Sequence to fold (438 residues):
Amino acid sequence: MKRNGYILIGVLVVTLILGAFDAPQFVNKVLDWKGGLFGLNLPHVPNTPFRLGLDLVGGTHLVYEADLAQIGGQSASEAMDGVRDVVERRVNIFGVAEPVVQVAGKNQLIVELAGISDVNEAIKLIGETPFLEFKELKPGANLSEGQEVKIDDVFIATGLNGKHLQRAQVVFDPNTLRPQVQLNLSEEGGKLFAQITKRNIGKQVAIYLDGVVISAPVVESEIANNQAVITGNFTPNEAKLLATRLNSGALPVPIKLVSQQTVGASLGAESLDKSLKAIMYGFLLVAIFMILFYRLPGFASILALVVYVVVVGAIYKFLPVTLTLAGIAGFILSLGIAVDANVLIFARMREEISEGKPLSVAMHEGFRRAWLSIRDSHVTTLIGAAGLYIFTTSIVKGFALTLSVGVLTSLFTATVVTRTILYFVSGPKWEKHMWLFK
Fold:
């Protein structure tokens, strides 16, 4: 009894702390009461907002089309995967919350940026991502630096492009002290570059950036050290900017914007408001059902459910999880699963009580016998959620993630919190009020 009381106090303290993290605005109002809570001037709880998706806060939806005409020996799917990875890395640098970047069809890329209502800003984030490519001259051709040409007019593709770039950095020519951009290539890129320089000794090899030749040096010897250098009339700031752009992602194939759409913040706010109402109504209906049908154990399960909501909310902030409408649906579903575990336990308890067993024994047997069913149902749900997370798109991944977090948390609340509350009220005096348990 005393041990369960200590555990219950510990659960209460942790729940209050996590609750303050979930909703700091309410705690801070209390701390500011009466001029700083009677003059104590306690520090405020940091206000870390939940991360909301495009459909809840508004943002920008962009569709890009990739030019796969010059992909060399790689497949279209490999090229598009490279574009997706680079664009995702690029927008992450600018702090966009959990962008949705996914391939659609054969050559389209969908980009959703939550919280960005300025379409031009979003286009700029993607458009600044450079398309880097190495090309060699056609027989008998020549080219001056800075000249803008069509892809097949003077140079032909070598297969070496932005996907082979590992890092770009600013260096200075030891003779002229002019800034240059040094490119460190991957192992595969280094082998390609060695082959290209070997067969082009005495000829120009051009480095294209966004379809423009920015450097076309003459190869003097084979280069086999996985490094290339971009030369030009750069100022130090220009060289630094170019290196930064290359490090943020060099596209393996060029892309162009074909569609754009803005999701208004007002529409997102309306969706969020409806979602919160759905959670509140769902919680209230579950609470009424559990209390009416299971009486005191049902009330204990609602207390455990409050702990469950607080813990899940804290996990969403800690990870952090981007909440979309699909993600909120996953949370609501996990709410039902959390209660389902308690239903199994209470049904077993009633069976034991109906057989005339003491209340403490009935509780123990109820938890023990229901555990296998609870474990199996939770594991199978987690397996399904894992499949959704691994093999589906970002929107469904949000549903799978929130569902998984909820299922794992419900195991704790059902087997620890509910058990502790019920064991706390399982003393001899409660034997006189068995109607509360059956």
Observations:
- Residues 264-436 form a domain with the Multidrug efflux transporter AcrB transmembrane fold fold (CATH 1.20.1640.10).
- The radius of gyration is 31 Å.
- The first strand starts at residue 51 and ends at 52.
